[in-house]
């Protein structure tokens, strides 16, 4: 296993630890507080609801951090769906043309974060971007085209696999 693949495996493991440990514990505490609120009623109700709200906020922050480390959708569904989800969060319409076959996890991770950086740096007026992912000799080629995607409206990234 290459050092690059090991790096992405560690990122994925860390994301899973955050999701399976603290995130699930916070979700369980939120549910337990809801049950406690039903039992207690009365004067404690507003305080318990405030605690639930704070736990929901903490859970959202924790999930956002975990997704920064390694997006779960990238692992489960691949580069195309993960990029579409990312674009939706950034309120940019993205057309993704990617083969259904999966790439090396390290290559998918590098490609995802390359696309993310490009999308985050687009001018605020950019509304539509096309992303094409192609299998290339020894890796993948990633093309981002559209208004604002570089000086000539296109960015090409080659990412080795394996």
Overview features:
4-stranded mixed beta sheet; Heat Shock Protein 90; alpha+beta; 2 domains
Structure, described:
The chain has 2 domains: 3-70; 73-160, Heat Shock Protein 90 (2-Layer Sandwich). Helix 1 (3-40) packs antiparallel against helix 2, helix 1 (3-40) crosses helix 5 (105-120) and helix 4 (79-89) runs parallel beside helix 5. It has a 4-stranded mixed beta sheet, covered by helices on one side. The longest helix is centred in the first third of the chain and has 38 residues, at 3-40. The protein is α+β, with helices and mostly antiparallel strands. The chain is 59% helix and 17% strand. The chain is elongated. The protein has helices at residues 3-40, 45-69, 72-76, 79-89, 105-120; strands at residues 93-97, 128-136, 139-145, 154-160. It has 5 helices and 4 strands. A hairpin with an 8-residue loop joins strand 3 (139-145) and strand 4.
Structure summary:
This protein has 162 residues and is of the alpha+beta class. It is 59% helix and 17% strand. Strand 3 (139-145) and strand 4 form a beta hairpin.
Mean pLDDT over the residues: 84
What class would the helix/strand composition place it in? alpha+beta
Q: Helical element count?
A: 5
**Approximately how much beta-strand content do the residues carry?**
15-25%
Distance linking N and C termini: 8 Å
Oligomer: single chain
Q: If you consult CATH, what is the topology of the largest domain?
A: Heat Shock Protein 90
Number of β-strand runs: 4
Rg is: 20 Å
Task: Give the name of the CATH architecture of the largest domain.
Answer: 2-Layer Sandwich
CATH class of the largest domain: Alpha Beta
Assign an overall shape: elongated
Unreliable parts: none
Pattern of helices and strands: HHHHEHEEE
């Amino acid at each position: 296993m290459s050092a690059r693949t090991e790096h992405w495996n560690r990122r994925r493991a860390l994301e899973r630890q955050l999701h399976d440990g603290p995130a699930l514990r916070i979700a369980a505490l939120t549910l337990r507080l809801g049950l406690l609120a039903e039992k207690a009623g009365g004067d404690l109700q507003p305080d318990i609801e405030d605690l639930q709200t704070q736990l929901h906020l903490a859970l959202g922050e924790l999930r956002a951090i975990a997704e920064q480390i390694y997006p779960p959708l990238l692992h489960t569904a691949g580069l195309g769906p993960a990029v579409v989800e990312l674009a939706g969060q950034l309120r940019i319409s993205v057309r993704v043309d990617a083969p259904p076959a999966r790439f090396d996890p390290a290559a998918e991770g590098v490609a995802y974060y390359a696309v993310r950086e490009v999308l985050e740096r687009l001018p605020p007026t950019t509304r539509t971007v096309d992303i094409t992912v192609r299998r290339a000799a020894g890796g993948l080629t990633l093309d981002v085209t559209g208004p604002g995607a570089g000086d000539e409206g296109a960015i090409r990234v080659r990412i080795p696999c394996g």
